[in-house]
Amino acid sequence: MMRDLETASPLTPGNSLTWDKIDRLKKITSMKVLVKGIETPEDAQLAKQHGADGVIISNHGGRASETGRGTIEDLEDVVNAVGPQFPVLIDGGFRRGTDVFKALALGARAVGIGRPYIWGLSTFGQAGVERVLEIMNAELAMSMRQFGTPSLKQITRASVGKRG
């Protein structure tokens, strides 16, 4: 969670990360800067104000806040807060192509997968990873056909139900 930027990380004693450091990082590099660990619309707005080129909604696999909301629950509010032109990526809990479809429909530009990739790798190496990606892509393609969205750009919020 970005609010943790205010405190020092146990992995880097005495080296706390602040929004000012994001500002400085933007000044010294021509690379794109994405801020990972966003969970609230307010933090996404702050990242944008401080020059981030995009954000990654992530709860770090539940290690940081295992009792919090799932990242997909935060997605729509974050996208609404920063606007559709600001890149919002997401990870955490995506296991199927249908999960990816939902995230894209709610405004994510990209979806990170971790565990399915690792499961494939640990069981069958590179071939396992390739098979996991094939399965997820096939599920995503099936969802796209079912919703009448032949291209990724045609996936919109209208493709999924409303919250509440």
Written description of the protein model:
The protein is α/β, with parallel strands linked by helices. It has one domain (2-10, 17-158): TIM Barrel, CATH 3.20.20.70. It is built from five helices and four strands, in the order H-E-H-E-H-E-H-E-H. The chain has helices at residues 19-28, 41-49, 71-82, 97-105, 115-146, and strands spanning 34-38, 54-57, 88-91, 110-112. The protein has a four-stranded parallel β-sheet, covered by helices on one side. Strand 1 (34-38), helix 2 and strand 2 form a beta-alpha-beta unit. The longest helix is centred in the last third of the chain and has 32 residues, at 115-146. The radius of gyration is 17 Å and the shape is globular.
Instruction: Return Rg in Å.
Output: 17 Å
Low-confidence stretches: 1-12
- From N to C, what is the helix and strand string? HEHEHEHEH
What order do the strands of the largest sheet run in, or round the barrel if closed? 1-2-3-4
Sheet of most strands: 4 strands, parallel
Report the sheet-strand fraction: 5-15%
Structural class: alpha/beta
- Helix content bin: 40-55%
As for the CATH topology, it is TIM Barrel
Total count of helical runs of at least 4 residues: 5
CATH superfamily assignment?
A: Aldolase class I
- Based on DSSP secondary structure assignment, what is the total number of beta strands? 4
State the separation between the terminal residues, measured CA to CA: 25 Å
